[in-house]
Amino acid sequence: MLSLFRNRKDRYLRKIKEIGREINIMEPSINVMQASRIKERALALRTIVQREREDQNKENNFIHNLNNNILIEGIALLREVSKRKLGERPYDEQVLAGLALFDRHIVEMRNGEGKTLAATIPLFLETLRGKGAHLATTNKYLAKRDAHWMGPIYHGLGLTVGVLQENTVLISDSTSNEFQLMEFDLDKKKQLYNCDIVYGTAEGFAFDYLRDGRVFNMEDICQINGLNFAIIDEVDCVLIDQARQPYTLTVTRISDSEKFSISMRIAEMLCKDEDYGLDKKRWRVQINEQGIKKIEKALNVQNVYDVELLKHEKY
């Protein structure tokens, strides 16, 4: 049994190492490209992937319907941008780690082996589909630090980057390395999640998901691009240690006794036959138009049947 798993692992490593060799072969041709040409080519790869996603030859795909040629060129472009912007060339081991992450594997890297840089590879490859990608960390400091640190790479490839913080959002477009600090409201959150790559804490992403599940209108959802792809930093901490305590979304609600008290006061205002009628046979109360107007006036609302009132806890 151990031999079976070992052989499978060896075959997989040979497969991604071959991809790594092809990337190294392409590297000299990328070295001579101007920065503007690299950005244009990166954006062109996105157009190609989205146009030919369903028509690609699956036998020439590495994973997830991404053509090998696009995969190789994309990583070669990222490696060159990293050299120019950060002075750091992703080593072959980092490239292999990035490929494995892109293939939905758990990758273990020790401190100092460059996992922050390795994570840029699968994040960039996922953005080629036009659906965006997330990186979830254990705390907001790491999210902000890594986004600022790796931001120049993404900008050099024509991507937008966002950072989800506790009470603010940070957004940077593809033309500048500067992040713009924005207040925490629905429109800004939508703009954040519309970025190509979003850094944040696992807790922050989870709570936004829970909040989206409580809204009544689709336009109130902040995670507008859905949940396409995420890399989890410190996966053992996030999925094991932190997962022991469930995330709960609490809201301030009016108590049942207070609701009953309000209902009693409104009921005492209504007059039988004038505002409502009794159907003793069916045990029903039929409130007429005049009674409805009295209820709306008491509650200070224009339409007591408006579904928007369900958003307000006092109703």
Describe what this molecule looks like in 3D.
- The longest helix has 30 residues, at 2-31.
- A hairpin with a 2-residue loop joins strand 1 and strand 2.
- This protein has a 6-stranded mixed beta sheet with strand order 6-5-4-7-3-8, with helices on both faces. It has a two-stranded antiparallel sheet with strand order 1-2.
- Helix 2 (35-52) packs antiparallel against helix 3, helix 3 packs across helix 7 (140-156) and helix 4 (92-102) packs across helix 6 (120-127).
- The chain has 12 helices and 10 strands.
- The mean pLDDT is 84.
- The protein is an alpha/beta fold and 315 residues long.
- 50% of the residues lie in helices and 12% in strands.
- The chain folds into 3 domains: 1-127, P-loop containing nucleotide triphosphate hydrolases (Rossmann fold), CATH 3.40.50.300; 131-248, 3-Layer(aba) Sandwich (Rossmann fold), CATH 3.40.50.300; 256-311, Alpha-Beta Complex (Pre-protein croslinking domain of SecA).
Summarize this, please?
With 315 residues, this protein is α/β, with parallel strands linked by helices. It has helices at 2-31, 35-52, 68-86, 92-102, 115-118, 120-127, 140-156, 186-193, 202-212, 235-241, 256-269, 289-299; strands spanning 61-63, 66-67, 133-137, 161-164, 168-172, 180-183, 197-201, 230-232, 276-279, 284-287.
List keywords for this structure.
six-stranded mixed β-sheet, Pre-protein croslinking domain of SecA, Rossmann fold, 50% helix
